[in-house]
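Field reference: sequence -> structure
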Amino acid sequence: MKNIFNGFLALLLCTCVSAQMTAQEDFRKMAPKPGEAPEIQLGDFQDFTLDNGLQVVLVENHKLPRVSYQLYIDVPPHLEGDYAGASGMMGDMLRRATSTMTKEQIDEKVDFIGASLSTSGSGAYAATISKYKNDVIKLMADVVLDAKFPASEWEKVKDDARAGLKSQLGNPDAIASRVRRVLTYGENHPYGELMTEESLEKIDLPILEEYYNTYFVPNRSYLVMVGDLTRSEAEMMAKKHFGSWKSKVVPEPDFPMPAAPEGTTVNFVPRAGAVQSNIVITSPVELEPGTKEAIRADIVNRILGSGFNGRLFQNLREDKAYTYGAYSSVNDDELVGSFSANSSVRSEVTDSAVMEFMNELRKISSEPVTAEEMARTKAQLTGSFGRALESPQRIASYALNTVRYGLDRDFYPTYLQKVEKASANDLLEVAEDVIRPNNVHIIVVGDKAVADKLAKFAASGKVNYYDENGKMVDMAAMAAPTDVSPKDVIMKYVDAIGGKDALAKVNNYAMVMEATIQGMTMKQTMYKEGGQLFSSQTEMMGQVAADQRYNNGKAMMMQQGQMMPESDEITNAMAEQAALFPIAEFLNTPDILEVSGMEKINGKDVIVISAKKASGTSQHYFDVESGLQVRYVQPQGPVTATFELSDYREVGGVMFPYSMEMTGVAPFPIEMKVTDAKVNTDIDQSLFEIK
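Structure field:
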């Protein structure tokens, strides 16, 4: 009987344990139900206004002995016209001098107290440890309120601006962004204005001073103070350093709301030789900050394309493998907001990628999102908002938004509650307003060969062509001329650089070029002889960074002391470089050439010759008037390298370009300048040896 009881007890125990395990397994399969969205305790910020109208926002945080100050100048939207870009350059000049300090002295003071200090066209930012909180706010006030614009610093700022603009004009992503601004807002709207080479050259110091004197006023400014400060300290420092700042009336022009296109437009920026297409789909939207519509639009955007889980990413990358990533964004703004979606895809799938973009835009603006998508996105928003509150700077930005936009004080504390209350129908309603696939601009920057396939997406059935400044281009005028052959263009080039007889007399030449890269000098020494010998050494910081050689069919390439494996690709590329005059060599291979069109460079007509070689198709641009080559473009792996040639000078009876600017091969343009060139000179033959 005891054994029966024990057996029964064991069976009962097993049954209970089994039932408990089953219950646990069922429990693990079910996600816990979310609780009610909490009201966030931000810690009430403090704010007060000085007699001159300066609004001060204080966020106390005594956990760490650090302080930061942000002076935000709320410059009203306005047109800069012929001087577009002046605001940014004024910001770069702002930190260059005061009436009592040079740039070097300002830098020394910042470094001495271990602080940071930066300026922009809309104010300044400074941070330091608590010990120097009085010193750094005084320094920031001196820099902003007693700014001087020395001519000695102006050329440096202008040179930096030129380099930055050239980098933009050579970068497909930047070009797409520039054209997006023009098409979304219009070129006569403040948000659609672009700095161009012409506007940059017109900007001078009086223009910057006029901007500074007009817009840097206390009654349109906010001083945000964060960190180890008390209310009494904040009031004392604000009054002491900014109380004497004089207020004045600032003009506030009105601008109409930019209109979305009546039908979808397709807009193309040709980039010869591009192996990728940069796609942007954009439209203006009415979406003011601090509204429930802005919150819901953010949720919709996160579901559509804010990251890995976004529909665009999952479709174009994970499913179709068209790209490394596809994204979207919705921006709210008091004047005019915007919606955009973007990706960089392989050229051959450009039209397919645009089709998938449009499918996703139609779907999210016509069908409710799923319960799973909404729950995941709300959870992500809750987590990211909570993490953001760990940063005093983020709390300060919320405080600034509250004061600047006149939001209710409970807007951010009850933000998560507003997120949680948003329903699928609420999201669909805002998606219908913000994402309108039948009223968008489709912008593509890429090889013109893919443009015609995109006409089907345009309501007009036509593709509009633009340059990198958002100016419409007449492609009919840029069509390949029928009365000129590639041979004609190459022969004119040969005549322009000296003629066949002069080239025939050249047996060798040596050339030294230099470039400055992030403050360091790069030096390249190149030797060519007989069309079959080539040697190039690149030095940085006294060390040979690269050594390339070609000798009658054999090639060697060493980079950073490492020998690169031999390959036909390297050998063929070296053989092309070994030619004394590579363009003249095209006369021996006319079958690989074609006249592919006309373009304008720096306002001058150029004719474009495409060369289809084993290493890929390159484009060569020749000035119609002079015959000289002014640019060539060639693919280098996943990127497209562009080389601008200028400043031709005669050496040994032949014209050589003394300036070569490269874009696409680095995050910034590299300008090589010839410092020495010799024709028919003695060359150490050991330079061509390949071991």
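Note: The two ends are 95 Å apart (CA to CA).
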